[in-house]
Amino acid sequence: MKKNKSIDWKNYDPNDFYDELIAAKGKPRRAATAITDYLGNLDSEEIQARQQAAELAILETGISFTIYSEGENIDRAWPFDIIPRVISLREWETIEQGLAQRLTALNMFINDIYNDQNIVKDKVIPKYVFANSKNFREQCRGFTPPLGVWAHICGSDLVRDKDGKVYVLEDNLRVPSGVSYMLENRQLTKRVFPELFDNTSILPVDDYTNQLFDMLASISPRPQDHPKIAVLTPGIFNSAYFEHSFLAQRMGAELVEGADLVVGEDDCVYMRTVEGLERVDVIYRRIDDDFLDPEEFRADSTLGVPGLMRAWRNGKVGLANAPGAGVADDKVIYAFVPDMIRYYLDEEPIIPNVPTYMCVNKQDQEYVLEHLDELVVKPANESGGYGMLVGPHSTKKQRAEFARLIKKNPRNYIAQPTLSLSVAPTLCDEGLAPRHLDLRPFVLQGVRTYVTAGGLTRVAMRKGSLVVNSSQGGGSKDTWIVDEEN
């Protein structure tokens, strides 16, 4: 009996957007032919059964995230779409080089800003840009961490525009999250489409936690010994707690809260155990600077460890990411990254920025205020899609409020054109439909630089929406880097 095909790619229409899988109606991109051919031979019941199998596996394994709503913490199952996003290896190799280039320059910038500030003296970046940054830490002045690396883990968000060009939308250098979901998405997809992994050259991502451990070990103050590594979490009510416990378990590291650690008179950090104090060499901290050490930052913090900054500055413990790295995790600083790359590396940026208007500049501010209905306006230091205005989807009242905010604190706002974000086929209530997405690859920097093969693809599940954050209704997909030559 002949099966009724669920998907006819000739009927799938991405409209005017760049589609990650389909080049034109009925014509898949070369790297995506394996998945499109496979899906085209499944009937609707088989596809639905596989989506349900993935959702059941998510519930069984407890893959979740936390959202904050009306004063409550609500755990939600991780939203996942079984149709992967596919990128060719040839294209990815260029992106990989661009991400490594970018993080190298960002780390050189952070080290320069806390020390000689040559980039300011040479008038490449004006001083007000970082002097007014809420993430600039005076406590880090005059210090250089091991290997000169401040941001050991970076999650840069990439988007593709209508013409197929890839841009960096923003850099996440404080406590970037999401990598555990990238790894879980791959495991889910292997369960759903096991045969495709036997017959398609899809680059693996499974080695990330080994690479993370090696990178953390490279900043240990006791390099000759097997280092004791701890993941410092704010606790079970944090939205990324699933990831904290996941990474600690995969690395064989200790999962600790601030109360589990103490700084001794010798400035070393110790973990409290039933057998007494045990020295900790490296802390992968998932706590913001403000809460890290009540002796140096917020005195009322119960999440951090008193004396931790002293231990770090005296070279007795490695911290990743280093305190103060967030100075470069600022949407105003972001606008200068291409200049940093030229200044520190004497190279042209491999991946461009999205064109950016800085409201602190009078001319830019005037343009932004006149074109609020066309632009995306973002506060300098918010994350998760919060506090921003998407001009084409905004009301007159919202635009008036943002005009007031911009005039009141222009340093805190930037604006960018509303990009025609690329789309990919996604299973929705109405069947298969194009949905907008972005990509967060993860870059590690220690003795060497490592870039994940792909990253976390986040997808806006609502029709027409450009907001991909899971906290605001977005979902995710596995990301396949496919070697077309094999």
TrEMBL record:
It comes from Marinobacter nauticus (Marinobacter hydrocarbonoclasticus). This is Circularly permuted ATP-grasp type 2 domain-containing protein. It comes from the Bacteria. Residues 84-460 form the Circularly permuted ATP-grasp type domain.
